[in-house]
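Example (one chain per record):
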Amino acid sequence: MLRPEQMSKVSVTGSKGVMPEVIEAVHDLRLLHVTEYDGSWQEEFGFETGSPIEGAESASDKLVTVRSLKSILEVEDTDSGRQRIVPDDALGEPLEEIRAEVNELDDRRSELENELRAVDEEIDAMEPFVDLGLDLDLLSGYETLQVVVGQGKVDPVERAVVDADDINAYEIFSGERTHAIFGRPVDGADEMALADALVGVEFATLEVPDASGSPEEHIRDLEQQKREIESKLDTVESELHDIAVEEGEFLLAAEERLAIDVQKTEAPLSFATTENAFVAEGWIPTERYNTFASTLKDEVGEHVAVEELERAEFSRDGHDHAREDVAETGGTAAATDGGTVSMSSDDPPVVQKNSGAVKPFEILVQAVNRPSYYEFDPTIILFLTFPTFFGFMIGDLGYGVIYTAIGFFLYSKFDDGALKSMGGVTIAAGLFTTLFGILYGEIFGFHLITEYFWEGVLGMSHPPIEKGLSPATSEWALGWLTVSVAVGIFHVNVGYILDFFENYELHGAKDAVLESGSWILMLNGLWIWIFSDALGGVPPEFLFTTFAADGLIPLGFSGFSFTVGWIGFGMYILGAVLLGMAELAELVEFAAPLSNVLSYTRLGAVLIAKASMAFAVNLLVFGVYVDDHGGWHFGLGGMPDAAAVSALGAGETLSYHGYEVTEVLFGGIFHTGAAGVVGGLLVLVVGHLVVLALGVTSAGLQAVRLEYVEFFNKFFEGGGREYNPFGYDREFTTED
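Predicted structure:
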């Protein structure tokens, strides 16, 4: 799983006479990731880039036609109900008849839409004149009067007309927003005198429609015209819909058939060819080579030669793959390149070897980049760590069940793609949230699992682990910071170790020690020093008590000795020296082993933050009282009398439901009457939905950040090519 599937570069050589048969066989196998011929053999050996097979142009034109028809008819992939055979004659006259009918209807639809748009524009233009309230024929046709219609404030307009020297009389008719100004110019005045007078005034002039009569009547006529156009448009749309229903399945199948034809006929564009022969190269999974070669032999016979040119593997000279000698494999002498058969020195594509529950996590890796062929695929590590981080931070049975249900819905609803993968990731995160919720003894922030399972069934005094939110369990909050640091040390170490092995296999032991071993020494040496007596009382005490024999997690570790601590510091200095020998500039990152690990304390911080949010919701709804040991209890079955508790003297307690109550933090909305019950339920539901959503945006993003920033950058670069074999995954067509 940590390595991609091993790939082999193969060569397929034959005469041009069998090239169509070879293409057909290779297409059906769907194994060969074709390498594009780069022209490197042309000058020396006369190989040129191949030409499309006869029929490529026709198939391409028909494919464009079918896709255009699909777009016009809005045919979706879901409109297909079965696979079907698409014979050649179905792509001739029947397709042309569909094209002619659909194009005619589409043109008619465009005409009607343009007419409808023009009518709408006329109606919009007529609305201001309805507001004005004057017949349209009164607004034009005068010899001695000039008329301007527009919208704006009437007072500035009137002032401008009064001040105009070329206007000796005027009248203004107004609606709510529209005004018509009638002005009689002086003798000899310009025909635009009234309009010129309004220049500079905030007044938007309107063009008077070339019509007569009432604007209301004109709009009624336009609306009737609009309804007639809409009726015709509905008829056209209905006819197009009928064609889509009747021919949609055929168009989907035709598109697939033509896409396959185009793929096959244009395949030679990637080949190296002479007048009589061709050479095709590409990558296939090594374990499928025998199947590939034997199938071609069976289909084409001795007219084709299949050779395994190279088997991609790591090598210490920095190359991505080792090439086999042509003399040992019997390659084609005409296509030699320094003793090898290769038309292009391309990197092998990457096939990530993950299956089952691990495969959905590839989406988290590919969100950064696809792993290159030279490096480890971290998918399996994300599968182990990401759900653990997420579940630890949320840790609640109720939330876990909901996350799992959401993930199952996504995983089962979608057949393939990102949403299905995210469903798988969400299922894993939900299951770990459920597991930690049981260990914490919580469901939606309530300690019901603790009460009924850990204490009731198993007779324990508390759950195996606690979040540390109440005063009675506050030492757990500090303990989780220690655990977070320990997890960070381990996780970052894994990243550096993977980098060590990558460097060792690619470049040898020296580079591995200098470039990766240096960081391993610095990381572990620094934290051995911190977890020791060498620093006296500088490190916080909880670092040494969390894992002590009598600590929260009794592993018997209470810190390293003074001597071991200084040995650790020496390891850190040695690592820094080795790092400087490899790349002096990297010494500026000398504090990275400290900052990277401290970044993991966000695990404990988010744990407390999410627990606090759920606690706050439950506190508001049900209230909380405190016992004499500092424990917090929700008032699910009622609340002790707050007045009686507040009247207690020093050292006095009130017995309630088996607890000695010392304080009531909050009485709870739920206990304030009928209105409180309704309001409390609303706060409860909305509050937990908010916490549920924030669990994704906080715990989810923080877990992803730790993977990408603190872990990936230790060894992962990405840049791998996706394995895209020549062929087609049929969905709508069949050849049987």
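Caption: Confidence is low (pLDDT under 50) at residues 316-340.
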